[in-house]
Amino acid sequence: MAQIKLSNLRHSYMPAPKGPEDYALKEIDVTWRDGGAYALLGPSGCGKSTLLNIISGLLTPSEGRILFDDQDVTALPPDQRNIAQVFQFPVIYDTMTVGENLAFPLKNRGVDAATIKRRVDEIAEMLDVTDMLNTRASGLSPDNKQKISMGRGLVRDDVNAVMFDEPLTVIDPHLKWKLRSKLKELHQRVKATMIYVTHDQTEALTFADEVVVMQEGEVVQIGTPVELFERPQHTFVGHFIGSPGMNVLPCEAKGDRAVFEGHEVMLEGPTLGEGGRTDLGIRPEYISFGETGVPAHVTKVADIGRHYVVSAMVGDTPVKAVAEHNAPNPGSHVFLQFKPEQSRVYRDGWIATQERAQ
Amino acid sequence: MRTENQKAWFFVLPVLALVAFNALVPMMTVVNYSVQETFGNNQFFWEGLGWFEQILRSDRFQAALGRQFLFTFLILIIEVPLGIIVALSMPRKGFWVPVCLVLMALPMLIPWNVVGSMWNIFTLPKIGLLGYFLNDVLGINYDMTQQPISAWITVIVMDVWHWTSLVVLLCYAGLVSIPDAYYQAAKIDGASPWSVFRYIQLPKMKTVLTIAVLLRFMDSFNIYTEPFVLTGGGPGNSTTLLSIDLVKIALGQFDLGPAAAMSLIYFAITLLVSWVFYTLMTKDDAE
Where are the domains of chain A? Predict the structure, then answer.
């Protein structure tokens, strides 16, 4: 159990990085509370797996330090960090039984047989694999194999953190939610810090107390799922999280208003800063249809079950809106109403409106 | 009721025809010779299983069979572990990978009789580089044309030089197919290098290793060209392996009956050992 602190972390896979573009990770500064559940979310190649491997010790960062509580572990090899990692593809030792697989990390550390047996039985019970303990691990289904690799991490009672590197990739969809709730349950029982890497927003948002959104080696925003959804700090977060993602519409900023395609839109608060490219960001969920507002021409309506996703054109800019029911017909002319407290201006991608005092 | 379509058999016909011409028909002529005696003029006399009995009881056959098993055993026990060690120490990424692979493949690309001639010239005392070096520089009394032990060492070393690469390349293919995650998981689990070998690398190499051993067994058990060119089976009969002896009987003495019987026994042994080995090695997977 430990608090994990990443301090001024940078990493490059090149021997002599020159500019920031040579870095797979640019300046990471994060502190993770002991016992928390965190997710690293981002598209492929954003550096999240690199970050995970640095925390587990499989990679040594080019610059910066990793602290577990107050101990500097930057130079320690993985087996001395007391961490566990579950990989994308289940790693099991084919020739061993399920029980031997679970006992392996303890055996390597010279734990006595009685303790091994007690811990293995406990973990097997937690994972619902007690009846498989004596079967060969090679014949198991992928979800059970993934459970065993998780179990190998949890069997040590001194683990500082358990890391998951897209662990549900190879699991059948109908088993994914089962394994995910198992994970949640395990987190409550073992109380270890858990870090979950994924590019799937549903997985990240359901698993984590706090989500770290990454893009091109940078942390874009850290927040609870609600914060990420309600107030994205960057257009990337707005676009990446949510389905469909946030509308990002080129606009001009004028005090607490944005001018978009010649129409004035009320913002959540006054805009900050000067210059740069300005965009109006608003989630489709917060655009409604009314008698007045921004005139638009509906091009497409998609029924996705729970609601309709309406695509419309305002001038030359496409806008998406969500309608619970009574979706307008394609081809019709409508007026869009933007919810002011959810309308923000982003300057060069970063949020540039002040939150209105509650 | 479902009518069964028998047309699929037509697709098997070409293979059947091919196998018939390159295996079954020649083999039947061997079977034919093995139960008859001929003195030429295409006259044959029925001999029954007499040749088989004669061959199995003959000291000459038993000695050759013993030498054959010893040879195969020795090269397997050297080439398999050596191949694994070389494969393990080869780089898995980077510039040196293709260099290593090409160097490894080179010995296997050389025609067998050339390998025999090369080693013959290389090891001849006085003339050959190795022969000269051992005798005149190191002072070791080495003459593979005169001493059975020297001849045996030379034949074994030649085979190891020629064929260890096969084991290396197959093992290497098995090794590179292991995802990095296995090594990373083992690191986190605190596994020792021996454990990594025993529980990750060896199990993942098992299939290719089975094939490697099987190929090396069959090839070495049927080996002819290289020792024939190198030692001609000598000195005396000390390196006369089964196939060399077989050719002596069939073409040297023109005893077609006993040679045919010996071929069939030889074939049966190769088949039996391969089958037993393969069944044992794949038994676990079927469970």
Answer: 4-230, 244-351
Supply the ipTM of this predicted assembly.
0.74
Is A96 in Cβ contact with B199 (below 8 Å)?
A: yes
Domain A244-351 - what CATH class?
mainly beta
Q: Which two tokens stand for residue B246?
A: 């077989």
Q: List, for residues A283-328, the tens digit of each pLDDT value.
A: 999 998 888 888 888 999 988 888 889 999 988 889 999 988 888 8
- What's the pTM value of the predicted model, to 2 decimals? 0.75
Q: Which CATH superfamily is domain B58-254 in?
A: MetI-like (1.10.3720.10)
pLDDT of residue B213: 92
Closest chain B CA to residue A152: B189
Summarize pLDDT for A45-96 with one digit per residue, the tens. Answer: 788 888 888 888 888 888 888 888 888 888 888 888 888 888 888 888 988 8
What is the per-residue DSSP string for B67-115?
HHHHHHHHHHHHHHHHHHHHHHHS-SSSTHHHHHHHHHHHHHHS-HHHH
Is A151 exposed, middle or buried (CB count within 10 Å of its CB: 0-12, 13-18, 19+)?
A: buried
CATH class of A4-230: alpha beta
- Longest CA–CA span in chain A (Å) reads 76
Q: 153-212 in B: which are within 8 Å (CB) of A? A: 179, 181-182, 184-185, 187-192, 195, 199-200, 203-204
CA distance A168 to chain B (A): 15
Residues present in chain B in total: 287
**Burial of residue A130, with CB atoms counted within 10 A of its CB: 0-12 exposed, 13-18 middle, 19 or more buried:** middle
Instruction: Report the half-sphere exposure of B16 (CA within 13 A, side-chain side).
Output: 5
Shortest Cα distance, chain B CAs vs residue A58, angstroms: 7
Q: How far is B77 from chain A (nearest CA, A)?
A: 24
Residue boundaries of the structural domains of chain B: 58-254
Note whether B111 contacts A: Cβ–Cβ < 8 A: no
**What pLDDT is attached to residue B126?**
80
Residue B287 has pLDDT above 60, yes or no: no
pLDDT reading at B164 higher than 80: yes
| Residue of B93, B184, B189 to mutate, testing the A interface (most A Cβ within 10 Å of its Cβ) | B189
Bridge partner residues of A280 (DSSP): A249, A345
